[in-house]
Amino acid sequence: xxxxxxxxxxxxxxxxxxxxxxxxAFWETWNQRSFANLGIPGPWVxxxxxxxxxxxxxxxxxxxxxPQGKLVRVTHGAVLDVAVDLRRSSxxxxxxxxxxxxxxxxxxxxxxxxxxxGFLVLSEAAGFAYKVTDDYSPAGERTVLWNDPDIAIPWPVxxxxxxxxxxxxQGARLAExxxxx
Length: 181
Description:
By secondary structure, the chain is mainly beta.
């Protein structure tokens, strides 16, 4: 596993070693020793999976109670995955990174607690799998507006073509959002 720091140094782009042949491909998506050597903590408390169609935008989600670290990957299809620094004391507060994750490239992102997370489906459909470091807290769940102009994520979809849940469409602007200290 190769870990590359992003423009937000705490967020890592992970590239597994992929073994391909005429049957298909194989790679590890999690290895406790390898990830510990990369500084990615455990333990993991839950695995999640979502299936979404093209132009679905999910996020930008985070929890202020029981903040979660997330290890995210795509099982099939492709997404533009985004992490936003929501730590008010950080020099990178409000900045984001974006990376294309796909079932083909096998890339993953480690998104530590203190960051918001969202993605846009680029393919006809995408399976999205992720591990989290803490339990889901409905009382602590928050959403920053996916197209907040203050964050200025260059989503490759026209706003009118984006498929967004009612909850995500009502996300807070960063300036008004409850964020981390």
